[in-house]
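Entry 14. Ran structure prediction on the chain below.
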Amino acid sequence: MTRKYFGTDGVRGKVGDFPITPDFVMKLGWAAGQVLTKRGTKKVLIGKDTRISGYMLEAALEAGLSAAGLKATLLGPMPTPAVAYLTRTFRAEAGIVISASHNPYYDNGIKFFSADGTKLPDEVELAIEAELDQEIKCVDSALLGKAVRVDDAAGRYIEFCKSTFPSHMSLDGLKIVVDCGHGATYHIAPSVFRELGAEVIAIGCTPDGLNINEGVGSTAPQALVAKVLESGADLGIAFDGDGDRLMMVDHTGYLIDGDEILYIIARDALRNGKLKGGVVGTLMANMGLELALQTLGIPFARAKVGDRYVLEMMEEKGWRIGGENSGHVICLDQTTTGDGIVAGLQVLAAMRAAELPLSKLRSGMSKFPQVLLNVRFAEGGDPLAARSVQDEVAKVEQELAGRGRVLLRKSGTEPLIRVMVEGEHEEQVRAMAERIVEQVKSAI
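Output, structure tokens:
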């Protein structure tokens, strides 16, 4: 069955436009309350990032859950992976995150975690969608849910993050720039690294409801690069708006993406005998990652783009490490979902174990030049089906002769066509990508 409202990462859109409206989100809370009640605790956790619309949508969810007879437990601004963790520790029925991740402040979204702290499977999302087609029926007044606020949520999550770093190690002597993108990690990430012993220079930690992801964070890492070079830091770490993605920068200003982070974590797990199986990447993963892991004898598999699909393949294979080049890294031996802070700590643990700077630790993997271009299109059309587009892709693939890849796909969160071309020579790859983009634009 086709999902009507849920995309690859919950329900998302521009605030004020359907479905991100107060009335729909209230009904979404009620519908979820009809489906996600298995433990009997009647408790649902709600966390949010720092967008101004989070207040409105939080209140709407609270009303919907209350009408269904569930108690809304409000965490305040909290990273997405923190909500997953706290949902498990509070034995809640579910966790809800109000966030549009790396998108601008005027977008927002609602995503759900199961009682086990995992993304909802398709069949559960379909069940919620079925309830959305029904009329809201409010429980009796005596059965209405209450709303409570958790005051120590940040402290609980900080302690959890620290517990994923080896107890015999510390970050003493390291100067780290931490960029929180004015997002949900602003009051958490600096404390985690500081309490483990690092000297922390924090940027992107003054959210005002409108500046999330604006010129800072993992989607705009230039600010992090500049601060690392200016301050003479050993490295930098940047998170996206909801804290489930990260990018890193070494002391030379070199940007380290999710593929390289996966490589570092997997190689360290192999070294200490903790690697279970292989690594799951996506169709967007750089060919250099695949070849570098192959050299180490580590199996590699590609899932569809989207952390839910990476996680599904990891569980299917029984592997523990996976992620996307965008910096969404999942370490299943530590937690149940992508977690930027936890992934960063695993890289720092590998640095400490190898007694090497980050610039040396990333050696061993050479990335192929990869050009990604976006083309905006109107909802409903499918320019990828055009013969002119398909013919141009076939020409490019023939020219690459097996030493590169072409990938065209629709974004799961925005009305964009993503055109990716990968090969050995950057100028050639860029020219090829632009040729395909021109055909896509002509087909729109």
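The chain has a mean pLDDT of 95. Will compare against last week's run tomorrow.
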